[in-house]
Amino acid sequence: MSYTSILYYVLLAVILLVYYIVPDRIKWTVLLAGSLYFYLLLAGSSVLMCAFLAMILVSYVFGILVGKTGSRAVLAAGIILSAAPFVTWKVLEIASSSATGAVKAEMMFSEAGIALPVGASFFTLQMIAYLADIYKGRAEVQKNPFRYALFISFFPQIIQGPIPRYSQLADQLFTPHRLRASNIAKGSYMILWGFFLKFMIADKAGIIVDTVFKRPDYYRGMYVFTAGCLYSIQLYTDFMSCVFLSRGTARFMGIDLIDNFAQPYFATSIRDFWRRWHISLSAWLRDYIYIPLGGSRKGKIRKYVNLALTFLVSGIWHGGSVKFIFWGLLHAFYQITGDLTRGIRDKGYSLLRISKDSYLRHIIKSAGTFLLVMPAWIIFRAPDLKTGLDMIRSMFTVRNYWIFWDDTLYTLGLGWKEWSVLKHSIVILFVVSFLRTRGHLAERFMEQHLIVRWAVCIGAILIIMIYGTYGFGYDAKAFIYGGF
After folding, report:
1. N or C: which end of the chain has fewer CB within 10 A?
2. Residue 468, Cβ neighbours under 10 Å: how many?
3. Domain check: are 124 and 246 in the same one?
4. H-helix or E-strand containing 191?
5. How many domains are there within the chain?
6. What is the rounded CA–CA span in Å between residue 332 and residue 312?
7. Are 479 and 245 in contact (CB under 8 A)?
8. What does the pLDDT look like over 300-351, one tens digit per residue?
9. Spatial CB neighbours of 328, under 8 Å, sequence gap ≥ 6
10. Which structural domain range is residue 23 located in?
11. How many C-beta atoms surround the C-beta of residue 344 within 10 A?
12. What CA–CA distances, in Å, run from 339 to 265, 271, 278, 303, 371?
């Protein structure tokens, strides 16, 4: 079941209706029942459902044990057992290390009679954070197994996050919320924006991206550059779309999920990029990998080693094949090199008389950051590391600049009308992103007259229906990050 399917919103309507009818003391049980039913539909298998419940039970029991004993050994055992299915999957991926590593891993799991629950890469991190936070005294032990199950299985964020901490989400789940028009309105705006990102940008850009990446031997040079830029936008809007759909759904029930993005392509360095991209994962890696390793407290060499190990974990989390490991270490290399050359770059700006706070300097740094991130995304998307590196090399060796003005780009799956829709939609994304840096855009929109808000929403719905993915016959694609 997808967050863009009609069935999902029928289920949501039923859950909301029951949630706001039942007495306050049992509202959270409605969320639990709805979440477990949603997961059963999502998994499509009683075996996967049982595996999911077993993982919840194991981490619940160890949460109690860690709280009682305060033992590091118990914590380690809890983390190992809670993460065992996901870690085993990753080991099999690495063992089969290839472009089809995930497929081979799935086959090996099936042959061994082992099932990996859907969304395990996200809720496993949730479980680890819960156990570690209890050990550190940052979270209280949840003694009610059903309440803990709700924290792990809450349906708006189970597929691909955001990855919540217990202290961020628990009170909101167990506190009864009243029906408020403002929550319904804000949730609707978030969902509408999510549909815009998915159908007007991500799925359209994906058609061109798929065309180029399926024929890397044929599409070279500026084709790769175009596809690399569009994949950077596709991945961003696809993932952010799912986050907005998740946040909008939760908002209907008065629950706030954290925002997972903060205009990452406005970042002025790779370090800044990772503060803005997939924020819940970046924060998890910082708090549970980088800082426990020593962070930056033990000298520069140790800091750089810790950075490399943290990004290695990030790469393996995304996929066990060599290309993902290379992608993670490449970002570590970017950060280390950026740290080492900061003084040189500052002197260069001084010689050019470009002040620290000038827009020109910000634009140069943002453009430079994007031009580092984009090739890394090409490796991320390519079928394997060798192909990805070859595609990047072709951008510098094949000089087919003519494709930008001879209508060749219109042969990549989108006609000129669809290209026009895509370009205008990206401009809207840029404007909205810029306005979000200036303040709380949603709150400012809520302050507008009701007629204005209705007009904007109805107009947006019509535009998405006419010009979006469904508007010219393509099927909606599955959310990209749901595959990790």
Report:
1. C
2. 22
3. no
4. helix 181-195
5. 2
6. 8
7. no
8. 999 999 999 999 999 999 887 899 999 999 999 999 999 999 899 889 988 8
9. 311, 312, 313, 314, 315, 316, 318
10. 6-179
11. 8
12. 19, 9, 22, 11, 17
State the Cα–Cα distance between residues 251 and 256, nearest whole angstrom: 6
Cα atoms found within 13 Å of the Cα of residue 418, Cβ hemisphere only:
23
**Which residue, 253, 263, 259, is CA-closest to 279?**
259
Does residue 64 register a pLDDT over 70? yes
**pLDDT tens by residue, 252-287:** 999 999 889 999 999 999 999 999 999 999 999 999
Buried b (16+ CB within 10 A) or exposed e, 52-76: bbebbebbbebbbbbbeeeeeebbe
Please check the confidence at residue 447 and state whether its pLDDT lies above 90. Answer: no
Return the closest-CA partner of residue 188 out of 9, 385, 370, 389.
9
Helices (H) and strands (E) in the chain, counts: 22, 0
Confirm if 206 and 241 have CB atoms less than 8 A apart: no
Residue 332 lies inside a defined structural domain of this protein: no
Q: Which of 323, 291, 318 is closest to 307 using CA atoms? A: 291
Length of the chain: 484
| Same structural domain, 241 and 99 | no
CA distance 292 to 136: 12
Is residue 83 one of the residues assigned to a domain?
yes
Is 59 inside a domain boundary?
yes
Report which residue type is found at 397. T
> In terms of domains, do 56 and 158 share one?
yes
The answer to whether 338 and 349 have CB atoms below 8 angstroms apart is: no
Q: Do residues 170 and 201 both lie within one domain?
A: no
**Same domain as 134, residue 82:** yes
